[in-house]
Amino acid sequence: MTTTVSLLEDARRRLADAPREGLGTLRTSRWRKERIVRAGEAWHLGVLLLTDDGVLATGEILRASEEVRRGYTAIASRARAERRAAAFRGGFAEGEIVHLGWQELDAAAVDAGAAVGPLLLQGGEPAVRWSNTGVPVPLAGYLDEKIALLRG
User: What residues contact residue 97 under an 8 Å CB cut-off, 6+ apart?
Assistant: First the structure.
């Protein structure tokens, strides 16, 4: 039987020289503007972020950018621009991709039968739910497809 842990280890080997994206965490201070600082890096594989020693569920994806005054009609657009600027203030380069609000997942718990975030067992085989309403697909095929797309 193939395990979630072994599939993720194999994916790490296959991705060793592929580009990674930044992981960020929000930092607040009474004296400084809010900023998003680097918390590591990961390979972005759809709903999963694969790190050297773990797997995460994706959250919000931003591109860091310098703060610029703009007139937004939507509050959501203004808030997103503020988060992009917070990433830039936190040390991410202009245009760098930043993942925020990611969640750590326990691959061993999935192999023990628990559903953890988008990962689960289906018919005894590791699977991933690529959307909240999507049907789970086999994790092996999902990783193959996402790795091929990342390697371009």
Answer: 21, 22, 44, 61, 62, 63
pTM, 2 dp = 0.91
Local confidence pLDDT in tens for the 152 residues of the chain: 699 999 999 999 999 999 999 999 999 888 778 999 999 999 999 999 999 999 999 999 999 998 877 665 677 888 888 999 999 999 999 999 999 999 999 999 999 999 999 999 999 999 999 888 889 999 999 999 999 999 87
The Cβ of residue 149 has, within 10 Å, a number of other Cβ atoms equal to: 11
Token reading at 115:
């559903």
Which tokens in the block code for residue 74?
């939507």
Please report the DSSP string for 69-115 in residue order: ----SSHHHHHHHHHHHHHHHTTPPTT-EEEES-EEE-HHHHHTT--
Distance CA 114, CA 112 (A): 6
